[in-house]
Design brief:
Shape of chain B: elongated
Strand content of chain A: 15-25%
Radius of gyration of chain B: 23 Å
Helix content of chain B: 55-70%
Oligomer: heterodimer
Shape of chain A: elongated
Helix content of chain A: 40-55%
Number of domains of chain B: 2
Number of helices of chain B: 7
Number of strands of chain A: 27
Number of domains of chain A: 4
Number of helices of chain A: 18
Strand order of the largest sheet of chain B: 4-3-5
Distance between the termini of chain A: 176 Å
Order of helices and strands of chain B: EEHEEHHHHEHH
CATH class of the largest domain in chain B: Mainly Alpha
Chain lengths: 695, 212
């Protein structure tokens, strides 16, 4: 079998047109190519801009993984980490978003964010898991071309672009000013401290503080800053004052501020605030800040200035007008060629605090002070308070001082003339005060008070006084017998009238109880009365003493107060214990005996004239007793006054100190004693005769 | 044997016999028909655009195969740390951790086969233009292999797809397919298209031409 002879099929010759021969499938690679080019172009154009950041070390920074963030948004990532040519730094190359690169100013700050645990908080915790990242902070500036940046070793205190105000604090001691320490305002953290640094002249520590908006609007010229580091315990005239700030500032230190007086003006530009060591100092510095136009002066003292420190106030009429800026000693050679060491205190005086305009120039201030010195202004050292050995310089007007003028020293610094200070006051330190308080004879006072009360009781309960009523009854019986007797009735009408009067008096006495009866009867009562008058003379003295005590207590002379109180009690004791008082009952008995004798005489006739005279004398005596007892309430009120004042004094020491407790106890005792005296006085007033009859 | 006396020559083809077979249903028509009498499909004795299609698909496959190797295949995020693995990187990592068997399979399926296809397809296309009778049998076998094995290259893509859908444990571990997975899948698809587009009858023609 052969193959069929099939006609050869005409196969279309290839189309001469190359394009017509192309398959549509070629569109696919073409499309892929286009897409590839498109993607390539896009990724190229989107490709970040390479920047370099020079860091001291690249802690945790790894190529590709570490990202760059701005406001917590990723703006790029690290491409490579390598050393700087000198191997002193690490250069991190990072590719960042093109749009960000265009607004990246040359002063953009970069730093590595790492987890940080400190007393004031935990930061960067997220980096524990995700690894560190590089944070950037800058103020967007369009058209930036900067590509090389210097990284920060640590996060900056203030990120560029953050709203707020940067101020500078000046402090003598920077040890309690840690970097990043909090700035508190009414206990709320409103800002942070930067790293403290020394001032260029080296005489103070400066630290920048950043106060976040909107709290920075509370910063005025009236704002005072103080150190809140740790806690402070202060004993002063206000009592014991302990203050503890936040735990963070306790561990870390920190500063707080507040507006200490009204009328401050908003601050503008770079402002330097003085950092006070504590809140009290800050609040007491009610003068405005030492302005730039403060006048630098010096005061030369002959004696010791132990207790005077830089920063101590310079006061005029009790107002702070400046401060001591430094103390130095120098050798002064007088005309006779003798060398003496003198102390030179450099001070600066704020013209505004002196009442001059805030922008007064130095020359004007100087001429003002020249006038003042010519009129007698002098500098003098005084203690800042009773409880402090710290000294301050006081400007006093002493017109009687020998005339002098403001001189200038070799450095053209005006020298303010000084006068000798009240040095004995220097010893009035808190320690001395407490020693004196310790030495106060409190026990003695109490002993005296107790013995006073005992004496009063002894007088009241003495046998003589107790016996008096019996004698009195007998006397009255006798008197009655006398009146009823025929002899008496037989007396001439005049005498009868007298006896009637006597009878009436006796009736009155019976009504008003014993004393008037007594005093209206007898001549010998005169003696008693005079004794009483003597006694009553002592009462005003007692009152005067107590007033004196009150006055002294007012003057805070605690020592004298106690001494006076003792004296008062002594006097009272002495009064009660006087022979006259002790002899009173005996005298009374004697008097009654004599009355009896007199009645006997009366009974026997005659001596009616004597009776009249006796009645007059007895009335006088009664009046004297009355006057004496009238003073008693006043004594009581005076004692109460003293106690109230002493109480106030003690209260001002602040509650709960051991000293206070003891003093209060003492005063309570005194108060109790005073109450007893008052009660005694009241009962004497109610029953004046009880002094005489013991009831 | 009817053909026993026929001197040795190239195998008889349908075209040489004046016939054309329908690609869809297999009915044979005499040459000259342009549509199949049975199913209506277009008839052509040889696909004139076959080689063009092969080259075009192969080119696209090659284009996407480049990013498939450069970009990460798997993006593994574990405890905030992200690691990315390319195809070859993954194989090397497997070798490093000692899984030689798995490394071998991945290397074979994801690298050897695609690259082999990348060479095999142009080789076949070139040999159609410049016939070489000695390798005719090899080329037929090669074509069969390429066409058969193409789909197995998708194993890698499936692994990525399964892993990324299973391992989604939030912040602890999560796996996402990288850009390379897409490219690789496309590359496999395009090379398969290239293999399918190859009209194997061209190999016969080339052999025949060579024999004459």
């Amino acid at each position: 079998m052969t193959l069929p002879d099939l006609p050869q099929m005409d196969v279309d010759p290839p189309n001469p047109s190359m394009f017509r021969n192309l398959s549509v499938v070629w569109l696919v690679p073409l499309l892929a190519l286009l897409i590839s080019f498109g993607v390539a172009w896009k990724s190229y154009s989107d490709r970040g801009v390479l920047i370099t950041i020079t860091l001291p070390d690249a802690a945790g920074v790894t190529a590709r993984d570490t990202v760059l963030k701005f406001r917590e948004v990723v703006i790029g990532n690290v491409e490579s980490v390598r050393f700087a040519p000198d191997f002193k730094n690490v250069v991190v190359s990072a590719r960042i978003d093109r749009t960000v690169a265009d607004i990246l100013p040359a002063d953009a700050e970069f730093w590595v964010v790492q987890p940080n645990v400190s007393a004031s908080g935990v930061t960067g915790l997220s980096t524990v898991l995700s690894g560190v990242y590089i944070e950037g902070a800058f103020i967007p500036t369009s058209g930036s071309t900067a590509r090389n940046f210097l990284g920060l070793p640590t996060p900056p205190m203030v990120r560029p672009g953050r709203e707020g105000t940067t101020i500078t604090l000046r402090s003598d001691d920077g040890s309690h000013l840690p970097k990043g320490g909090p700035v508190l305002f009414h206990g709320i953290e409103v800002g942070r401290l930067d790293v403290p640094r020394l001032s260029t002249d080296g005489d103070s520590a400066l630290v920048e503080a950043f106060i976040n908006a909107p709290y920075d609007k509370f910063l005025t010229t009236a704002t005072r800053f103080w150190n809140t580091s740790g806690f402070s315990v202060k004993l002063g005239p206000d009592g014991i004052n302990m203050s503890v700030a936040s735990l963070g500032s306790l561990l870390n230190g920190g500063v707080a501020f507040d507006t200490t007086f009204t009328g401050g003006q908003a601050i503008a530009g770079e402002t330097v605030f003085t950092l006070f060591p504590d809140e009290t100092a800050a609040r007491q510095s009610i003068y405005t800040k030492i302005g730039d136009n403060a006048l630098a002066m010096a005061v030369i003292f002959d004696g010791s200035v132990n207790g005077l420190q830089a920063g101590a106030p310079v006061e005029y009429l009790g107002l702070r007008v400046g401060q001591v800026t430094g103390i130095s000693a120098f050798i002064d050679t007088d005309a006779a060629g003798k060398d003496t060491v003198k102390v030179r205190a450099a001070i600066e005086v704020d013209p505004q605090a002196l009442g001059l305009d805030a922008d007064t120039g130095e020359d004007e201030t100087l001429s003002f002070l020249q006038d003042a010195v010519a009129k007698g202004m002098r500098a003098r050292l005084t203690t800042t308070s009773l409880f402090s050995s710290a000294l301050k310089i006081e400007l006093v007007d002493l017109p009687d001082e020998p005339a002098t003028v403001l001189t200038k020293d070799d450095d053209d610094i005006p020298i303010l003339p000084s006068v000798a200070s009240n040095l004995p006051d220097f010893t009035a330190t808190a320690e001395g005060v407490f020693k004196r308080i310790n030495a106060l004879p409190i026990e003695d006072v109490m002993d005296h008070a107790v013995s006073l009360m005992a004496s009063i009781e002894a007088v009241a309960s003495s046998d003589g006084v107790q016996k008096t009523p019996d004698a009195l009854v007998k006397l009255l019986n006798d008197a009655q017998a006398l009146v009823n007797s025929e002899d008496t009735q037989a007396l001439p009408g005049e005498i009868r009238g007298v006896v009637d009067g006597l009878n009436k008096i006796l009736a009155d006495l019976q009504q008003q109880q014993a004393v008037n009866k007594l005093v209206s009867v007898l001549e010998n009562a005169d003696k008693t009365a005079s004794d009483l008058a003597n006694a009553s003379k002592d009462f005003p003295a007692l009152v005067a003493d107590l007033r004196d005590v009150a006055g002294k207590a007012k003057a805070l002379k605690a020592e004298d107060l106690i001494a006076s109180a003792t004296q008062v009690l002594d006097t009272a004791n002495a009064l009660i214990g006087t022979d006259a008082a002790k002899a009173l009952p005996a005298d009374l008995s004697q008097a009654l005996a004599e009355i009896q004798a007199a009645l006997q005489e009366l009974r026997e006739g005659g001596a009616v004239a004597n009776t009249n005279a006796a009645l007059a004398a007895a009335k006088d005596a009664a009046n004297a007793v009355s006057a004496a007892t009238g003073d008693l309430p006043k004594i009581t009120s005076d004692i109460e006054d003293v106690i109230a004042k002493a109480n106030a004094l003690v209260a001002s020491y602040g509650p709960n100190s051991a000293f206070n407790t003891k003093t209060l106890d003492l005063l309570r005792e005194l108060q109790a004693a005073a109450k007893a005296i008052t009660q005694l006085a009241k009962s004497i007033e109610r029953k004046p005769n009880s002094l005489l009859i013991g009831r | 044997m009817a053909n026993a006396g026929i001197p040795r020559r190239a195998p008889l083809t349908a075209r040489a016999a004046g016939l054309v077979a329908c690609h869809e249903c297999g009915r044979v028509h005499p040459l000259g028909f342009t549509t199949c009498l049975r199913c209506g499909a277009a008839l052509s004795s040889r696909d004139p655009f076959s080689l063009q299609k092969v080259w075009a698909w192969w080119l696209v496959g090659l284009m996407v195969y480049i990013p498939a190797n450069l970009y990460p295949m798997l993006v593994t995020t574990s405890l905030g740390k992200t690691s990315e693995n390319t195809l070859l990187g993954g194989v090397i990592e497997l070798v490093h951790i000692g899984s030689y068997g798995v490394a071998g399979i991945v290397f074979f399926a994801s690298i050897m086969i695609p690259i082999g296809k990348m060479f095999a397809i142009p080789y076949l296309a070139i040999k159609v233009a410049r016939p070489d009778s000695r390798s005719a049998h090899l080329r037929h076998w090669l074509f069969e292999v390429v066409e058969f094995i193409g789909r197995w290259s998708m194993v890698d893509v499936f692994v990525v797809a399964i892993l990324s859908s299973l391992v989604q444990l939030g912040g602890v571990v999560s796996i996402k397919p990288g850009f390379a997975a897409l490219c690789f899948a496309l590359s496999v698809a395009f090379t398969m298209l290239a293999a399918i587009s190859f009209d194997s009858r061209l190999i016969w023609d080339a052999d025949k031409g060579n024999a004459e």
